[in-house]
């Protein structure tokens, strides 16, 4: 089975947990895309009725609109019945890294107020510890003096061998090694980019600094608190103690883990 087929299997399994009349958080990314497609399909077949979707990005908003899923927002629905979304990493305690698609703020706002948060992944997302994939752990920051903030983030995690890179539109999902490594010598609060390439800008008009680790971060709650204490930080991509159900699709079948 291809990775995308596994993603679809996990997504369809999660949609079985959606009941008529529910307010549903619609995730962002290639796995959540399948869940949004499936919800629309069941709505049009009459198998699901009166669903209200709360999108977690402009991208998902557009997809859901084009599929005819009725949409609303957190102002009208401050509590959701369920949210379904993908993840970039999942550790054994069901802590997540999310945000390599750049939607972490709206995802965390929506997925933080739902009764059930169902995470759908293919087995490649399972890691021993957060940051263990060696890929990006995204942090959404304000553009003002981004180098200053990137440097402070990098210094916070010196013990974990952290390198902070501003995400550019060229490396927009934090996966490539593109982006700008914050020059730790000189800092002028210009928002320009010395090495060319434009900063990736989130739906909320902010920048993303991707943190790369070569060692275990350690206490994740302490790490989360330390990141959020930095004044230039908006939110980070560690979703700690938020998932209630994780659906993992692998070549040997689907496993469902409940918190
Ligand atoms: O960027 C995000 O938060 C996405 O949900 C990400 O965590 C999963 O994206 P994928 O389903 O395309 O792998």
Number of helices: 6
The hetero compounds bound to this protein are: D-4-phosphoerythronic acid
Strand content: 15-25%
End-to-end separation: 27 Å
**Can you tell me the residue ranges where pLDDT is under 50 for at least 5 consecutive residues?**
176-188
Largest sheet: 6 strands, mixed
- C-alpha geometry: globular
From the alpha carbons, calculate the radius of gyration and give it in angstroms: 18 Å
What order do the helices and strands follow? HEHEHEEEHEEHEEEHEEEE
Question: What strand line-up does the widest sheet have?
Answer: 2-1-3-6-13-14
Structural class: alpha/beta
The helix content is 25-40%
**Count of beta strands:** 14
Overall pLDDT: 92
Keywords: Isomerase
EC number: 5.3.1.6
Family: Belongs to the ribose 5-phosphate isomerase family.
Catalytic activity: aldehydo-D-ribose 5-phosphate = D-ribulose 5-phosphate
